[in-house]
Records
---
Amino acid sequence: MRALSLTPPPPAHISSSPQNWCADHAGAWSTKCTWNSTECGGCDVCATVVNDTSARCENWCSDHAKPWSTKCAWANGQCAGCDKCDLTPSPPPATPPPNPPSSPPPDYCQCNGNGNQMSCDVSGDRYCGTGQECYATTKVLYGEWDSMCAADVCECTGNGNQMSCSASGDRYCGTGEECYAKTKVPYGQWDGICQTTG
């Protein structure tokens, strides 16, 4: 029993030799070459057509019932060259830029009451220079040592205009001034410790 062909066999008046009528037949070679060898399957051109998987667009592709996503993916490439099939591969997704390095947290230091020692949030314990005292009562940004270390630090004694300085000893605010500061100040910064009375 012979398989049913969708394309009619050659007319009876044409020779049964494949080369005589197959070339003029309207069907695509990819279809004609699948017919048995007494029809078009034996034509010389079929040796390359049957193995051809290059992308092309057969004239029947647009009328075929399958969706384009299926037709474009057929391994034989019969419809892969049609305009509906995008042969350009999608570019790979862009690589996101690397995250910038995070800034280190600010390092604040505070006198801890042990002479010239201070404690810093990030770097730990540190010391003012030799002969200096840590006098600041608030946290100071790391490196701003003049705001917290001094060789001679003065504080009010609570006795009128008298102050006591760590290196130079007892001193007094000017005549008509009182010693008012509740914190230590570096020697010479009198506006920060003395004020006019009354």
Note: The radius of gyration is 49 Å.
---
Amino acid sequence: MGKTNYSVGDKYGRLTIREIFKRPTGNKGRVIKYVKCKCDCGGESITTITHLRDGRTQSCGCYLMERLIKHKMCSTPEYYTWANMKDRCLNNKNKRWNRYGGRGITVCGRWLNFKNFYEDMGEKPAGKTLDRINNNDGYYKNNCKWSTPSEQQNNLISNVYIEFNGVKKTVSEWSDSLKIKRETINARLNRGWDVDEILRRGLGKRRKKYNFMDTNKTKSEWAKILGITTNTINLRKKRGLPINKILTSERWAK
């Protein structure tokens, strides 16, 4: 910055001199020296050599834009998302490093600049977070989207798929469509339940089935077939009656 001489190729801030020329001021033949520069971001800038050397011009304008955006948006959800994305991929002290940077998940060079990230992704929709389409690839425009928590859950490597009535969905998708907690479905899977029992809405405990005449049905199903109440079945069972006396349509089974 303290140079008295300057030449093509010299760099000041983000600007590299590409051309030096003079322009008259119209003031008694006085001329001013200008430089045409290439910015690190790829843009161009024309400024006076004085402004370049004293630091008043440091870029093509991108530096000021970044500062303005950062100042206005540093408390926004978009900036928070961007900062956290970089930290878990670039900071080996981050508690989630092993799941991101530690296993090769990177941030593209363009997205190291918040302005570029914001241009590519836009505003963060309410209720959504930054998601990678390919869970094994890094963060860049064509591999990222804003997703709901359920959509992100469906993108996990460890997802379990359940096929029922010809439809194949993840645990999260079945949870959403049937209004059953994911934890409940996973617990039923771990107990070895049949698919129809796993996905039965509102089922608290596994329903016992009664085998009668080579037919397995639940208490409610038998009650409906026989035209009796489940309470009647319970009372007959409590009296110790055999299965043929429990599951009969006769009102006064003995």
Note: The mean pLDDT is 80.
---
Amino acid sequence: MENYESNPGVAWILALRSLESHPNTEFQRGRDVCNRWPLKSQLVERYHDRRKEYPNYEAESGYTGLYVLKTAIEKANRLVGGWPDDNAIIAALEGLLFPAPAGYIYIRPDNHQGYKDGLTGFSMNSPDYVFPIHDPKRRITVPIRSITAPPGWRKAEPTATYSWIEQTWPTASV
């Protein structure tokens, strides 16, 4: 059994689930099908029309990953005048800002990882869907630059972001 004292995130979620004031909601446990971002709406509509079900997180991630790669290959193809090699594709990915259904994805050149703003909040039941959805009135978008170590931050244990937060964020006092 996991020690919840060593994982405050899990303890916090369990505490939120036990709140009597929100018996039908859970923290960050719904599908984001009602997003006002046009690319999200288009994906949800096309996916539902084709499959008669709504996309889950994995469907959206797969779609985004495929189109990020497609965009990089096409860009590299135009630059080299034919099918690009791996290094040309990597160069096309570095620094890429891609409009995706979940918002803009940025591929950092220093570590080749994709970054997007974080979404958090509560879910709600809706008569329009058979699953919980994100409550548009109780959601927060967190800019990725606020929760990720900046480029060039030294690697540390357990992660660069952990050490960046530990060293730069103010501490709260009770």
Note: The CA atoms of residues 127 and 133 lie 10 Å apart.
